[in-house]
Amino acid sequence: MGVVGVALHRLGGRVGLGHAGEVEGVGCGFHPCRVPGASARAGTARGAPPPADHLAIVAKLPGITPQRSAPLDRPSAQRCAATESRIRPTSSGVWMQDVPSDSGSPDEHGAATFDGARADASSTVLQRTDALASPLLWGQAFPVAAWKQVLGERSVTLSLADGPATLLGARHGHVRRHGLLAAGRHEIPLAEHDDDWLWVDDAAGAVTWTLPERVELAPVTVVIPTYRREEDALAQARRFLQMEVVTSVVVVDQGGTLPDHREFAHLLATHPSLQLVTQANLGGSGGYARGMLEASRDPAAAVLFSDDDAVLSEESLRRMVTYQALSAVPTIVGTPLFSAARPSLLVAHTEKVDSRAFQWRSSDRRRGATDLAGTGPADWTFLTAQGEANYTGWWGTLFPRARPSSSDTPPPCS
Question: Can you tell me where the transmembrane regions are (predicted)?
Answer without folding.
Answer: none
